[in-house]
Winged helix DNA-binding domain-containing protein
Amino acid sequence: MPEVDRKQVLAYRVAAQGLHRRQTDAAALTVFDLGLQSTMRDTAAVSLAARLDAVLTEESFVEDPRFVLAWTHRGAPHYHRAAGLDAVRAALVPLGEADAMARMQWQRKQVEAAGVSATEGLFAAARAMHEVVDRTMSKGAVSTAVTRRVPEGMTYRCRGCQATHILDQVMRLAAIHGGVRLESGVWPAALAPVTGRPPVTGAPDPAAAAAVVRHYLRLHGPAGATEAAGFTGTTAKTVKSCWPDGLAEVRVDGRLAYLPAEDLPALENAPEPDVVRLLPPWDPFLQSRDRALLVPDKARQKEIWKIIGNPGALLADGELAGTWRTKGSGRKRLEFTLTPFWPLPAPVRKAAEAEAERVATARGFADLRVGWA
């Protein structure tokens, strides 16, 4: 059984996720095998700036018909290849009631008290969204219309606006099954029907679910079922029930982990991660669930992954070497503050400042100022 240390794993992930050498075609990036999370405006464009030769603005990227934005993994918005959206939808059908309930995450208690099963409530909402969303609509308008069509237990009374709404996580999880996507580049959120959307079926597809686990292990491996479950928003038991074939066992600093067997040579011969990149919050590299491997120091983990308001991360020579934040001055100047975790050599600092220029371009700023904390 091959044995590797964390540095070798990080070098493999840098290369596997397209950070080692910039590419020319966004659709060819491996990160789209899982999806590119876009929780905040411009984060997707900044992730692409770290991986592509050309710097694309958010506006130019969102107009590319090869991609579609939808609520998918864990109910979070992700860009996917449009041609693969049906496979993503199939992979997100719960494999049982325990799986459906686990995906409710922070609203699990409300769903448990709803008087209907999580699966029943999820697909009642999916059918309602399929019926309601026949054109571009605001999220609020969709919520109002769908709330009238779902079981009462799947709704709640909002004190702030004195209205009844469908549970937000139920709506997010149901949208993809109802053939509903998000409008790219629109804020506040707007929803629209997916072109050629199929009828709502809710038929589980273990093979499709296994494909997502395989993609996770390829991009974030070697890893285990617990880490894959954390990404998909379900339980390790559910992930093990659709565990893909053809995996190699690997020991990472003595811990058993798994990787697609065909990727083992790439792990054993990972190139030196001799690059500097500025990664936005929720960049794929930061989505690995074994955070202690990414950043062994717990205090530094808390600097990167916060409860609210994550910063970006500075990747240097395979290590997460610091954080960065920005403050815009209108749409003219972007103020950068980079905070390294340790003293960085002058060439690394210079490379980070060059990356800041790429980030500013991706976000549509013509000027920037970089400061080091």
